[in-house]
Design a protein that fits this description.
The chain is mainly α and 191 residues long. It is built from ten helices and no strands. Helix 2 (32-57) runs antiparallel to helix 3 (61-75). The longest helix has 26 residues, at 32-57. The chain is globular, with a radius of gyration of 18 Å.
């Protein structure tokens, strides 16, 4: 029955993501095996999309949001230039292109949609993670003002000390990226 399958799908994706994370930590980043694991990341993101399509039919919004957060954690830190350069490098290799994940919409919209799902259907800790990911994504695309306004509006600075260490680290990385964004745009007083 679907009542048993749906929670199992969400747990499956979360465990798969955890195993992929462990693999990245335990493999030398300069090895061929690491490059193969990067392809597995594309498979994970595609799985997230496929399972979310299934869950949408059942209107399981909290579970969709959890899977969307997994997807968000694997795309928010990638600049659009990476996707463009990859497509250009592999334009004559359709089989290899097919194995990789490419967004079908602008990344800003994809990230915004994923963050909206998380903020509407998940708890505070997940909302903070999603908002930080969105701020980071704005910052790496030199949308300094959007990143700055979003992080101020979310009032994350007031509650970050009570969050788990991993979220505090993500907060620090996001603040640094916002500063670098200001620097790249020539707003030296803001950086």
């Amino acid at each position: 029955s679907d009542n048993q399958i749906i929670p199992a799908l969400v747990n499956f994706i979360e465990k798969l993501e955890g195993q992929l994370h462990k693999a990245f930590q335990n493999i030398n980043a300069g090895s061929i095996e690491y490059l193969l694991r990067l392809r597995d990341e594309c498979l994970l993101i595609k799985q997230c999309d496929a399972i979310n399509k299934f869950l949408e039919k059942h209107q399981e919004w909290e579970k969709i949001a959890r899977i969307s957060l997994v997807k968000l954690e694997h795309i928010y830190y990638k600049n659009d230039n990476l996707y463009e350069k990859t497509k250009a490098a592999l334009k004559n290799k359709p089989k290899e292109l097919e194995q990789l994940y490419f967004m079908d919409q602008p990344s800003e919209k994809v990230v915004d949609d994923l963050v909206s799902l998380a903020t509407e259907h998940l708890g505070r800790r997940f909302k903070i993670k999603a908002t930080l990911a969105q701020c980071y994504h704005h910052a790496i695309h030199n949308r300094y003002q959007e990143a700055k306004n979003l992080i101020k509006k979310a009032k994350i600075a007031q509650m970050i000390a009570k969050q788990p260490i991993a979220i505090q680290i993500q907060y620090d990385r996001t603040i640094i990226q916002i500063g670098l964004s200001a620097f790249r745009l020539g707003n030296f007083s803001e950086s």
